[in-house]
Structure formats: C-alpha cells, structure tokens
Here is the input.
Amino acid sequence: MTLTPDSIEHLQGILPKASDVQSFDLSAINRLVEHVPEDMTATVQAGMSVADFQSTLSKQAQWLPVDPPHPESTSIGALLAGNFNGPRRFGFGTIRDWLIGIAVVLPDGRLVRNGGKVVKNVAGFDLCKLFVGSRGMLGVVVEATFKLLPLPESEVFLKRECESLDEAASLIERIWNSDLQPHVLDLYRLENAPLMLVLGLAGAKEDVEAQVDNARDMAVTDLGDLTHDASFRSSSHTTVSVPPGQLSEKLPYAEPFVARAGNGIYYHYGEPIPHKPTALEQRIKDAFDPKGILQAP
Here is the structure.
C-alpha cells in the first residue's frame, strides 16, 4: 500500500488505520519551513526534492553538502530513509553529519520531534541518527532541520585514465601523501570504457587553483565531472564496503563498478542484497511499530 497524505495532520489520521504500508507519496508536504542564513540552518518538509531544496538554499549562497544520484527525483524524506549519498561523501560525510533536528509521524499517529534548530543541541536521545537509513520501517519523517555550508567559491573536477588497478592504487597513495585536499576521490570503470580516477577540489578560488597545479604534477589534468555516478547507479546494483586500503584488491576489475576510493565503498551491477534485520533491529522495530503497519518496500 502507498499512502498519499495531503498534510502532516492527514497522515497522522490515516496511518494508524492502514496496514501493509510499503511507501509514501509526500509530494504535498513540501514546504520550506525556515531558512536562517546567519545561523546556516534550514528546516524543510520531507516532500520537497533535494534539487529544489538546494536551489532555494543557493539563493543565499549556501547548500546542504550531500549529493544523491538523482536529486531532482529524490525527496528529503527518501534521502533520510535511504541514507543516500554520492561522490562528495568523501569530503563532506553522510547525511547523518548534517541532520540536527527531525519530526516523525509514528505508526500510532503521534508526531514526535527530536533535536532542534541550532547546531549545539544535545538534549535527549538522538532519534535523528536512528531514523536515517531506517527505510521507513519505524515511522515517517515529515520534517528535517539541517546545518548548512557556504557554497564553495570554486569547484573543479579532474580525471585521469589508469592502465590497471595497481597504477590507480599507486596514484591514490600519492594523492593521500600529497598536499591535495580532495572532496571527491572516485575510481570507476563503466561498460566498454577505460578505468578512470576522478579528483574533486573545492574551496576558495586561489586555493583550488593551487591544488589544480599540484594535481598536474601527478598527470591528473583532464577536466572531469560526476556523471559516472548517476548513470551507473540508475541500474540495479549492490553496495560493498571494505577497508580503503584493501579496495584495489576487492574491486571486480573485469566488471563495471564505481568506487569511493577514499571511503572503501564500491557499487557493482547485481540485485541488491535483501536486508535481514538483526535481533536488536527487530526489537526496535517492534517498539516503534508493534502492529506491523510499516513494511519493507
């Protein structure tokens, strides 16, 4: 079942009476509640798309430093429920690092809030981190407050073709040991295409220019972009996480893949592995949703 509420209050009324709910259409709950540029925080309802949220923030030269593959079709609620991220995760972290407040409708219809609208808010149990990545199994996120960053003055992506994984590993080690401070460090091979490394640099214009010069010393000179991530992750894929130092040993070299070379995460084609809840996860699920109203999508 898919629920399509037209307001938070409507959702509170229909959710306790529903059964076998697998998805939500929150497109009607899509308002920017508050943006305080001087505090670099913003509160937004969960139905707004990530792209629209970023566009609104950009008018004040700010942004939320997360980049899921398809921001125009990914809502804030989906971003949180799926713990989605993209290439900039290497430099900016995950959505958990930027979420400071949350409002959730529980399966029994109660609206609960946790966190706050200021960065230094540490009172109470941190439900924010609990609901991020919960896949909508504990409740429905309807509103979120984020801390923000100023938009970088400059952002440049460079790429270099590598002949082998060993060459790529050597180049990545050189980058690690250099003065470069990349916010993107991706390694990928797409269908019928060479092995490529992408380096992203962002910040003050002069600083980025200096880092670009340093990258040239490593023969990382061609202009790149991040289109590889969205194109690859549009198809069915599975996610693997390994220690970053073991990445080159684990990558499926003969197959297409996209890897976060700095994080040890890579994606390759294949059906996603179904998540089997642990005993602790099941206890939490039973505590929040004893009637089993919310089901896995």
About this structure: Residues 154-269 form one domain. The first helix runs from residue 8 to 14.
